[in-house]
Every structure is written in C-alpha cells, then in structure tokens.
Amino acid sequence: MLFFSYFKELVGREVTVELKNDLAIKGTLHSVDQYLNIKLENTRVVDQDKYPHMLSVRNCFIRGSVVRYVQLPPEGVDVELLHDATRREARGG
Amino acid sequence: MAVGVRLFSERVGEGGGEPVLDAENGEELMHVRPLVSVVLGNRPPQSPGTLYISTKKVVWLSDVDKEIGYAVDFLSLSLHAVCRDPEAYPSPCLYTQIETGSDEDESEDSDSETNGVVDLSKITEMRLVPSDPNQLDQLFEIFCECAELNPEPIEEEEEEHNWVFSADQIGDEVAEGEDPDWRISENPTNTIGHSNGDHDLARTVLELQIDDQRFEDAEEMEHDVNSSHQ
C-alpha cells in the first residue's frame, strides 16, 4: 500500500506520468486509487509535436498498469517520511 | 491480456437491442447512451449508433446495420480523456487509447487497413462522440468507475514481477489474517535468491567450460583409441 499512500499525498501537485507507450502527460494529480490508476487535471502532453491530437485534453484517466514512471515534484519528496514509511512497510505495517 | 478492439454483433433478441453480456460471470450493463458516433483510429466517424457500457467492456452498436458493432474490454483501455479542443478533433469527444497487445512498433497514425480489410486489433485510438457534448463529463466518470472495476488479472507465472505492483494484494491477504511479516519479507528474499542464482549460474557456466575442455580431451582420446583400433 506504500505507493498508493504516497501518491495520495501528492494529490494537487503537478506530476508527469510516463506511459509504457512513451507518451508522457503532465498534469495536476487529481486522484489515485488502489490499483494506481491515476486521474490528472489540466493535462498537457510533454512531447506535443509527436502527439498533436492530445494537445489539450483537460482531464485524463490513466490505467495503472500502463504507467511506466511517475515523475514527482522535488518538493513532494520528503526523504525522511519515505524512509520511515518504507521501514514500516518492511516490518509489515 | 489486452486484445484491443474487436467486432461485436451479438445482440439480444432478434438483433434489435442490447449487446449480449456475459451475465454468468457477473457482467452487468452500467449505462446506455444513444446517438453516439464512434471513430476508430483515423477512420471516418460511424453513426448513428448506441453506446453500451458494461462492467467489463465498452460496446458500440450501429443503429443502421445490425451486423456492425465494436467492443473493447476495459482491460484494454489504457487511457481515457475528455477532449474539447477543435484543433485536436472537430467534435468534442471522449478520447481513448487502446492497448493492442501487439508490439509497440505501430505508430499512432499507422494505417490499420491491409488489403481493404481493417485490422481492428491494431487500432490504438478510439473516439466516442456523443450528440450532446454536455454528456462528456458524465461519460468520463462512468468510464473511470468501470475501469476501477477491472484491475489487472493476476498472472501466476509472473509472480516475481507482480509483487511490485500488487501492494493492494498484500493488503488483502493481511486482512485475511496472514502473517504480514512473512508475506512481505518473502518476496525480497526471493529476489536476492535470484541474484544469487545468477552467480551460481555464472559459476556453473565456468564449470561447464572446464568440463567441455575435459570432454574435448576425452573425445580426442576416444579418437585416438578408435584410430588405434582401425
């Protein structure tokens, strides 16, 4: 549940979601569910030349299984907190 | 396994109405939306038709030709979004990307038509254009809801990869009363075990090479023996 909990903390922040088909979408994280399905708002495609038709998709639902990477805002990465959380997770909870 | 778009013409009754659903496996109709056009890839829009959204798939059935219809499982829908930009597409639509299961080589605009026959399984984009653009946000939400009803099926043989993605499964099993310490520590141990296994493999290969040399010698000796017998 660590990723799920962590991503929930990032709701409202700007992230870039890179899909397994190389499409990268930047947007405000609206919500995430237990399957790591991601909803973005105010989205824009990073490589607009390659994907012109995706130019102004306002809100977007991305299936968790097709996500390759999520690029996080640096200010959203609290190393101390993540250390603790991963240790807790490793201990089972 | 994602299969992409497929033809669908199984309709209830005398072909007039709703698509036949897999009720035995719990498939239910969630939503019906008349007057929707469908656009597959770069093909021209097809209309009029009716959109049926079930707990498992999206089905579009032509109102004109009872043999024409398409279905996509939610498992194959990678992404969906409301698109209102006339530059992106002339009509406001629900834009979807479809995982086809084939190699990623196909570019977005690759011609999915071969010898005049459309290969539906290669279509990577589908647009649904409702007659009333104000319905788009509701459609979007229904798609979200149904996507969440269709998580990835658990594939047994990919167990060692699955654990990364299935924090929720671990959660479920913990809820069922299993010892969480055991469950969570098991997988990392396996991973370490695998890397150890690689070292072992490297050593085994080395030993094999040594053995090979021995065998070569043995063969030569065999040859010698054979030749001396001849």
Total strand segments of chain B: 11
> Total number of helical segments of chain B?
4
Largest beta sheet of chain A, briefly? 5 strands, antiparallel
- The radius of gyration over CA of chain B amounts to 27 Å
* Head-to-tail CA distance between termini of chain B: 62 Å
| Fold-level CATH name of chain A | SH3 type barrels
Mean pLDDT of chain B: 75
Question: How many independent structural domains of chain B?
Answer: 2
Indicate the overall shape of chain A. Answer: elongated
Q: Widest sheet of chain A: strand order? A: 4-3-2-1-5
The string of secondary-structure elements of chain B, in order, is EEEEEEEEEEEHHHH
Catalogue the unreliable spans of chain A. none
Helix content of chain A: 10-25%
Shape of chain B: globular
Structural domain tally of chain A: 1
Query: Radius of gyration of chain A over alpha carbons?
Result: 14 Å
Low-pLDDT ranges of chain B? 105-110, 182-197
At the fold tier of CATH, the topology name of the largest domain in chain B is PH-domain like
What is the CATH-assigned architecture of the largest domain in chain B?
Roll
Q: Greatest interface and its residue counts?
A: A-B, 37 and 37 residues
* Helix content class of chain B: 25-40%
